[in-house]
Amino acid sequence: MCVNSDFLIKEADRCVKCGLCLPHCPTYQLARDEAESPRGRIALIQGWAAGDLQADRSMLAHLDHCLLCRRCEGACPSGVNYSELMDAARAYLPRTTPRWLPDVLADGGRQRMAMKLAAVAGKSGMQAWFPSAIVRRMLRIAATLSASESGSSTSLKKYYAAAKTQQGEVAVFTGCMGATVDRRAIAAAIEIITASGYAVSIPPSQQCCGAMHAHAGYRQRAAEQKRTNLALFAGKGYDSLITLSSGCGSYLADISELDCTVMDAGAFIQQIGGIGSLPLTEIRRKIAIFLPCTLAAMGQQKQVMALLQDLPGAELIELQGMGCCGGAGLHLLTQPHTGEQLVEPLIHQLAASQATLVATTNSGCALQLQTSANKAGLGISVVHPLELVVQQLQKT
């Protein structure tokens, strides 16, 4: 085995196999199989790094099923850096995710092409012609995006001045999919943050945060994306780097070279005073809230929930399920069966709640919940929490 296994063995050896992670692991809850748990996957990595196990199809499948939700990290008394261990192992192991997949999803031009193709394929039935199941799923999701993001094509400026006495300046991370998936959320964040006295910068030429490539084992490409983004955001004096998708936020928050805090947009707004002073009308709706694993990894779920609790007239219901919706980045495309099992209790809870909207802070979760709600015939829209706030702003 031609691999520098020192880090893998050292980090894996920190796991004492106590099992405190088990109740927090969604895939273990589904399978009740040790190989589908964090400590089981760590044992597999230990065995392979030591040369005692072969990286066969069964072993790779158990590792691939991991959602990297990081819920185990919060429960681990030994402080095992599980996500870093998994990323490092996947970089050395045989790749199971084709390189073209993160390459396409991380490229804005290819995303737009996919959405155009999806619109045509959806009307003509061409989706069934593609031999790759991943491509067929990608086109179905792209068709959902085309419908949900229609009318949101306003271009973003590089700089937005504070609407009142300036308290500071933040940068907004749009990443690779912001213009496709989070355009309305970005616009809402700009409106609220500038109204709160902060200028907003949106540096052009931003790259993907690197999470998709890193989690698929392509660490060199992830490192290139990291270098590009550091040149844009580090050393610029920003008070915070704001993300509209907590999947990006949780990955960026682990970059030690960033000299500003990485914050979910809703958590940042709550930190600087919340929405209580904004001129808001009553929403008078029952809203289901799903707080993603990645927001929990950032430690900012309480701030987002507190922000929404100040939305006048809102009746909030938090969706729980097994702790993860199953969207989990590329899992939405590569592990649909697991995703369907994990999202099912959330959809049942959503249907029973009679909520008319779902709010969540991660684009992958939003896609998973929207496509599953559509499939269940619920007729419910999934939005970013800040979209709800802006909709209730009294326009002057």
Secondary-structure element sequence? HHHHHHHHHEEHHEHHEHEHEHHEHHEHEH
- The CATH architecture classification of the largest domain is 3-Layer(aba) Sandwich
In what range is the share of β-strand residues?
5-15%
Query: What is the fold-level CATH name, i.e. the topology of the largest domain?
Result: Rossmann fold
* Poorly predicted segments: none
User: N- to C-terminal separation?
Assistant: 67 Å
Number of domains: 4
> Which of globular, elongated, flat, extended, rod-shaped describes the shape?
globular
Roughly how many Å is the radius of gyration? Answer: 21 Å
Q: Class by helix and strand content?
A: alpha/beta
Please give the number of β-strands: 9
- Specify the CATH class of the largest domain: Alpha Beta
Mean pLDDT: 89
Q: Determine the fraction of residues in helical runs and give it as a percent range.
A: 40-55%
Order of adjacent strands in the largest pleated sheet: 1-3-2-4-5
What descriptive keywords fit this protein?
396 residues, alpha/beta, Fumarate Reductase Iron-sulfur Protein, Chain B, domain 2, Rossmann fold, five-stranded mixed sheet, 21 helices, 9 strands, 9% strand
Structural summary, described in words:
With 396 residues, the protein is α/β, with parallel strands linked by helices. It has four domains: 6-92, Fumarate Reductase Iron-sulfur Protein, Chain B, domain 2 (Orthogonal Bundle), CATH 1.10.1060; 100-148, no CATH class; 159-271, Rossmann fold (3-Layer(aba) Sandwich), CATH 3.40.50; 286-391, Rossmann fold (3-Layer(aba) Sandwich), CATH 3.40.50. 49% of the residues lie in helices and 9% in strands. It is built from 21 helices and nine strands. Helix 14 links the parallel strand 4 and strand 5 (261-264). Helix 11 (183-195) crosses helix 21 (385-391), helix 15 crosses helix 17 and helix 19 packs across helix 20. The protein starts with 5 loop residues before the first helix and ends in a 5-residue tail after the last helix.
